[in-house]
Design goal:
heterodimer, A: alpha+beta, 2 domains, 10-stranded mixed β-sheet, two-stranded antiparallel ribbon, 12 strands, elongated, B: alpha+beta, 12 helices
């Protein structure tokens, strides 16, 4: 520790260079952290929105391929199923917005609360949803966006079904990120029949909550066996797998982004190594004098090495700080405009912070090692010869 | 008196290790930026270049994509004979009723993606003038045949000319390949509209109608007439607007990539400045000598800037070569890059590094070089000859 003053003085000897090197490492660490945040944030997002006991049962051919409504009852009867609800895309455009701005589904009011206990919907509100045919439950994100309150009436014009519906908001999904709206399936069914149709005979996805995570696989198998050789064979999957498939085709982008992350990390090592070797080369005369005075190789190596590591780790901390700031900025940007929404998915997780700091330590060590080792090893006489 | 150009250039080659280090930093930034820019411009090309300036997309009011719209047969029949709609040589109106669904396709590695499948009538190829059958032939109605876009070919199990492709509830025989100059139609599969409606069991036969007008004026008139029609709750919009709106789903990605490029650029600028500073410092005596010999401050400043640009160009050349190679490698290793548009269907983007991307990267590299070189060059030019010589 008594050499700390020396290290600090050395860092301060060329302030501009120290600042430039530190700045470069800081920016690079911030970049790597932001890029790492993308997959990490996606995973964290998947974990927060999905439960390990929820299963989606949908047509094997695709989400847009429906199943007969009667199949919902069969799934509900499977052993180990705690609750099951049939959901059908309504595709309602909110009148004022003029187009579909949030997902909205026709659901079975009597079952939906039991499938989503983690959404923490007020029991009284759920009871209202069951009681009032025209009731709707709306996610907080959408409630806020349009300034709706419980009790408000809104009109939805379906882009899929020949039935526009007036619904009354009776409840709220308290999750900040929940955009969806649920309306009563029977309400839509009646509206379709009133227009001379045969009603809502289909269901899009049956969401199941298993009583026990250990039963999930058995339930998925049973559901798919039940539908085998019917006109709508199903493919069941866990909720996490369902949502991750939505992002699945971004895999190519993630690959490219990771390649570039690697390049950027390489860039940092380059810069730091360059600076460390410059710093050592400049001081070779003075280092030789120190050695001649009796400072050991270990001390020379230690102070130079610590200098490089100290610089890069301070820069690393600043870089992580910058990442936190930038992701805040990105989520703010996500609020400006619908099309920028995905930017809100950048969540800095603890592992990302740790990785960023370790990266900066690693860069410092890697960059500091070779020049420090070289300086410590070089024979004194040779350097003094070179200098004088 | 000005310093000869060769002085700057020789300075670069006289210190190969340091020059390569600086150029290497710039090269890495060029690689990162070129790949990102290439990704953006390829994506843009795919999403924005779709659509015919004379075509209208007719959908259910409120729909923002034809995958979530449903239309009746009556709506189609009503529109078909509106005035101002172009006709084929055999006097058939250029009105193409279509059904879009997004079934799962199995990728070669067993994953699944939603692919846009468009059910069409034979008239579709006349209405979508940008699309043509590049290999094989167009489908025959009611024969279980499919034509697949160039981007879809080889990406999914069975997506080969002559193979059987499994999607929806049945298998389809691939009889042709569609090309549309890189636009998003190349990420689609086309089949017979009635067969698709049957397979998907949709309550209404169509999801949208594409209409070709005879002129821009006629297009406005047809659009007005469709929008004002109270019977079917439908609306029309120019096809180019429709695809431009779809392309907005890439906005977040654009912003992100530009932000990353800027950060990387500043970081590399720091690194380059660092090396340049060191280079100037090591040559203090030399600069003092030059000043004592009578070279002006301006000419020294100029000479160091030239050196910086030479380094930047060297870095650009290294980086550009590497980036083009990497883009090729990525193309070979992972094929087209899938991108989910707002419709949640997969657009297959071919990663191409265009000359424009390279030019932008060159400008960036030169800016980094100039900005990084300006400080040290300024400092070098300001040195008083006496001091500089004494330091030596």
């Amino acid at each position: 520790m008594k050499y700390f003053g020396l290290i600090r003085a050395n860092l301060g000897r060329n302030k501009l260079r120290t600042a430039l090197t530190g700045g470069a490492i800081m920016l690079a660490v911030a970049l790597v952290c932001i890029l790492l945040t993308m997959p990490a944030g996606m995973n964290a997002l998947l974990d927060t929105i999905s439960s390990n006991t929820r299963i989606s049962v949908h047509n094997k051919a695709g989400i847009v391929y429906s199943m007969p409504y009667a199949f919902t009852r069969k799934v509900r009867a499977i052993d180990g199923v705690a609750a099951a609800v049939g959901m059908t895309w309504y595709g309602g455009a909110y009148e004022e917005a003029g187009r579909v701005t949030f997902p909205n589904f026709a659901v079975e009011a009597e079952y939906v609360g039991d499938v989503y206990p983690d959404y923490k919907i007020d029991p009284q509100q759920l009871a209202d949803f069951k009681r009032y045919r025209d009731g709707a439950i709306v996610g907080r994100q959408t409630m806020k966006k349009y300034g709706w309150k419980i009790g408000d009436r809104i009109t939805l014009k379906s882009t899929v079904w020949p039935a526009d519906l007036d619904v009354r908001i009776v409840g709220e999904i308290t999750n900040e990120r929940a955009p969806m709206l649920w309306l009563n399936r029977e309400y839509l069914d009646e509206a379709l029949k009133a227009r001379g149709g045969s009603g809502l005979g289909i269901v899009g996805v049956v969401w199941v909550r298993a009583a026990d995570p250990a039963r999930v696989n058995a339930i998925m198998r049973t559901a798919d066996e039940l539908s085998r050789n019917s006109e709508a064979e199903t493919a069941s999957e866990t909720e996490k797998s369902f949502f991750s498939n939505f992002f699945g085709s971004l895999q190519g982008f993630v690959t490219i982004i990771l390649i570039v992350t690697g390049l950027v990390a390489l860039c940092i090592v380059f810069i730091a190594a360059n600076t460390a070797s410059m710093a050592v080369r400049e001081r070779s005369g003075e280092l030789a004098v120190m050695k001649a005075m009796g400072f050991t190789r270990g001390i020379i190596f230690g102070t130079l090495f610590t200098e490089a590591v100290l610089l890069s780790s301070v820069a690393g901390f600043l870089g992580v700080g910058l990442t936190l700031g930038l992701t805040k900025l990105l989520s703010a940007a996500a609020g400006w405009n619908d099309t920028l929404g995905p930017l809100g998915a950048f969540i800095v997780t603890v592992p990302v912070i740790v990785e960023g700091i370790f990266l900066s330590l690693f860069v410092g060590m890697l960059a500091g090692f070779v020049p420090s080792w070289g300086a410590a090893r070089k024979p004194v006489v040779q350097i003094l010869h070179e200098v004088f | 008196m000005s310093l000869p150009l060769s002085y700057s250039i020789r300075n670069v080659s006289a210190r190969p290790a340091r020059s390569l280090m600086t150029a290497g930093v710039i090269a890495l930034v060029v690689v990162a930026c070129t790949l990102f820019l290439g990704l953006i411009s390829s994506l843009r090309h795919t999403l924005v270049s779709s659509g015919d300036p004379l075509n209208l997309v007719v959908m259910r009011k409120g729909s923002d994509n034809d995958g979530s719209s449903q239309l009746t047969l009556e709506a189609y029949q009503a529109i078909k004979y509106f005035d101002g709609i172009a006709r084929t040589a055999s006097d058939e109106p250029l009105v193409s009723p279509e059904l879009v669904v997004q079934p799962f396709f199995r990728t070669l590695d067993g994953g699944r993606e939603n692919v846009l499948v468009r059910g069409v009538e034979p008239i579709a190829l006349d209405v979508h003038r940008e699309v043509h059958v590049a290999a094989g032939r167009m489908i025959n109605p009611s024969s279980g045949e499919a034509v697949v876009g160039k981007g879809v070919m080889g990406r999914y199990q069975g997506a080969q000319l002559g193979s059987e492709l499994q999607f929806g509830r049945q298998k389809w025989k691939v009889v042709g390949v569609l090309e549309s100059g890189g636009s998003s139609f190349e990420s689609e599969v086309w089949v017979d509209v009635r067969e698709l409606a049957n397979d998907a069991k949709r309550p209404l036969p169509y999801s949208g109608i594409r209409v070709q007008a005879i002129s821009p004026e006629a297009m406005r008139a047809v659009r007005q007439r469709i929008d004002d029609d109270p019977r079917y709750a439908i609306e029309a919009q120019p096809e180019t607007d429709y695809y431009a709106k779809q392309a907005e789903s890439a906005n977040a990605l654009y912003l992100l990539v530009v932000g990353i490029a800027v950060l990387a650029g500043i970081g590399a600028g720091f690194g380059a400045a660092n090396t340049m500073y060191a280079a100037v410092q090591a040559r203090t005596a030399e600069i003092g000598t030059l000043r004592a010999l009578g070279f002006s401050r301006g000419s020294i400043l100029w000479s160091f800037q030239v050196e910086a640009v030479a380094l930047a160009v060297l870095g650009f050349l290294l980086g550009a070569g590497l980036a083009v190679g990497l883009a090729e490698l990525i193309q070979v290793l992972i094929g087209g890059v899938g991108f989910s548009a707002r419709t949640f269907t997969t657009n297959v983007v071919t990663l191409r590094v265009s000359l424009g991307d390279l030019a932008t990267a060159l400008v960036l590299a030169v800016i980094i070089g100039l900005a990084g070189g300006l400080g040290p060059a300024w400092r070098a030019a300001r040195l008083r000859p006496i001091e500089a010589l004494r330091k030596a």
